[in-house]
Please model this.
Amino acid sequence: MNGLFTAISTGFTAFTATNLDDILILMLFFSQVNALFRKRHIVAGQYLGFTALVLASLPSFFGSLLLPRPCVGLLGLVPIAIGISRLVNSDDDDADVDETQMQPTWFSSLISPQAYSVAAVTFANGGDNIGIYIPLFASCTWQTLTIILGVFFSMVGVWCFAAYKLTQVPAIADNLTRYGNYLVPFVLISLGVLIVIDSRTLETPGLAVLSLVMSGLYLLKLVRTVSQTLQRQAQALVVTPELDQQ
Model:
């Protein structure tokens, strides 16, 4: 019984210590819920991202490491890319969608791009998680590891529920609704920059070059997308006066 209590308290402490910042990010995500981005996408993405963090840390239980910290830091480019994309395409987030076309399921949420985006942010922000889980798992027995993982995945649900409930508090909800659309892109970009810097990714020449190449390719794609959007808007402005004259 004493060992069970110790394992539960260890799992609770380790999860809380490594996920305090996640609850703020979850609150921002829940404040952005609309017809395209649903609550189930956030919960599914959080579980997917956290599962990836656990899988990346589990090899230490068998005496080996899977991902060096600089490689984890490379994933900081993901929230930067998502933040820039949302900053540029903020007007498209509230597009109307006919929800009667398809009855969504939890499986479809798991494979949706929205869930993958949340999972990518969760995993990219998990450098501290991996750094703590690796030695924690390495010191576990099968029994304690099972209990700790049970606590971890239960706490993910608690974290999502708490973040959602916090967004229902009138003062918090009003501020998130008013400023969330403007705040989220900058939070994601800042988060990505901090992950890259904290993981010392740019101190490794190969990873630094890879980061620059990936960033350049993404920016080129983004510029092309923006250019095409502007061209469509210009064409629409030209067509509208002609229709009015008819």
Summary: The chain has two domains: 2-203, 204-246. The chain has a mean pLDDT of 76. The chain has ten helices and no strands.
